[in-house]
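Repro case for the chain-ordering regression, as requested:
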Amino acid sequence: MSRNPYEASDVHDVHDVHDVHEDADGGAAGRSLAVIGAGPAGLAAALAAAVRGSRVTLIDAGTQAGGQFYRQPAEELGARRPQALHHQWRTWERLRDGLADQIATGRIIHLTDHHVWCVERLDEASGFLVHALRGPAQEDPSVVRADAVVLATGAYEKVLPFPGWTLPGVITAGGAQAMLKGGLVLQGRTAVVAGTGPLLLPVAAGLAAAGAEVAALVESAGAQDVARHARNLAAHPDKLVDGAGYVAELMRRRVRLKARHAVVAAHGDGVLEAVTVAALDRDGRVAPGSEQVIRCDTLAVGHGLLPHTDLAETIGCRLEGPAVAVDDEQRTDVHGVWAAGEATGVGGAALSLAEGHIAGCSAAARLAGREPDPRAWEEAAKSRARSREFIASLDAVFAPRAHWAEQVTDDTVVCRCEEVPASAIREAVGELGATDARTVKLLTRAGMGWCQGRMCGPAVAGLTGCEPVPSRRPFARPVPLGVLARAGEDLPDE
Amino acid sequence: MNSKRTPLDLVRAEPEPAHTATFDGTQLAVLPGQTVAAALWSAGVTAWRTTRGTGEPRGVFCGIGVCFDCLVTVNGRPNQRACLVRAEPGDDIRTQHGTGHDDSAEGRGHES
Ligand SMILES: Cc1cc2nc3c(=O)[nH]c(=O)nc-3n(C[C@H](O)[C@@H](O)[C@H](O)COP(=O)(O)OP(=O)(O)OC[C@H]3O[C@@H](n4cnc5c(N)ncnc54)[C@H](O)[C@@H]3O)c2cc1C
Ligand code: FES
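-- result from build under test --
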């Protein structure tokens, strides 16, 4: 039973995992594909390509395959029923078993704990060098050579600031989910889940199932927003049922659903103790006098996801808005580079699987010197079209609320790394005359710290009214200078 | 009872025996495979860093290695992301003050 609006409702994409001989291009085995990211998209891509005769190196920062959706607890934790924290477990089993089979036959090499910081494009004949860092301190360099690359790097969470959001105890909704699924831990006992978007539902359900008291699920979209888009949503009854299933589960656990509400402040002395929740009027403004304090030690908060595009940017792939631009075959505009999953636009696991499958099929054919036949991935293309349409309607419902910036007090930290308060950002625009995000950054240092603006980018754009700009980070990960100095000399692993 | 349920119960975990690390000199029981962040959460610790500017406490925020809020000092090496790094037996985990590099210069980080 699929219940998550983000989840796969069909698993066609991995059906062919076991048909190794059916479509395999016997003669062309040997040309290599590097797939970066072992989430739903990367796994689907790696399997589709391996089955079709490519030699695949699957590279991921995690110690196990699965990505965000299928994040697994460490083996040493001995989970006998890991599926209790998951949905679409059968799809995961297919992916996991397919991967094991392909590793056994030598068609896929899975490199775990490899943090890719740059993909370097050599000339047409030589392909690509994928530079990664390994080890607990991520300082040991590793290089993989490949003829083509699939970027399946997923997404990370967007959180818009509010007073108190830097207090320990405030965590992203996906982060709470990641710590729960991967480490089997809860931060505290009483949680509020807040923000906007379909991810909040599985997060609230997961925390409640694992023993947290979920005091409230606070969603800034309202019942009316959903109704306005009901016609579109009704075209996807399976997904509606997904959402309804979560709502039923949360009601069973007596979680209060507060639609058209928002957390406007978090309070505590060095650690989270309570949040203020307020009702929103039709325009998304706080309704005066509606504030209410809820005691909690965990606030899991998120306002949507942003695609991970830094590797694509290092290769020079064109972006479209915040996402990597791709064609019908999931090709980027850089020859030899495909992209799939949330890196090309956030849309959940089902879409990621479909896109990954298409990317893998297309890459395998082109590596073998054939023009791919799109009929080979007809089913996946249909699923992709359906998912994208559905996601477009969700995006309209779950837009971050208007007027959020009005609750951001001048002393609220906006850039968490460089500790830049909202007052400095407002001053950069209001008094110093900055008219674009890059100037704001230079004047305030917002976005210049460790995370390179990943966390504060949307907030700076929203507070200043400047367009968010592609970040142009030189590397996807911090790189030790010694590694950089030697990068030119490193010989590929394989 | 729901209130007593833990994530380990939910997935019927039978973890390998715990090992020991230390956090700011105090013993910390760690389940094998857990990250430093997960081990600290299990011990009820949610903050293990103070910021450079205002010295505010921070812990896990993104949980997936993107935000760098969870920086911690492990075995004398500052700036390790607690949400990514596994806790190994005998690890000396310490609250990271400021940049983590200026402890002795500023006389901080010398908890006895
Ligand atoms: C923290 C978090 C938790 C989430 N939890 C859920 C959930 O519980 N339920 C749900 O429906 N949706 C969840 N989502 C949404 C999620 O993004 C899914 O829709 C789905 O996992 C997307 O699949 P993907 O393959 O595109 O990316 P992902 O699953 O995100 O996989 C991307 C993979 O790429 C790897 N990677 C990225 N950059 C690099 C690099 N430079 N070097 C090496 N490896 C790299 C990552 O380690 C990751 O394994 C979550 C999202 C986030 C950010
Ligand atoms: S919590 Fe964000 S990097 Fe560790």
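Ordering looks correct now. Chain B has a mean pLDDT of 89.
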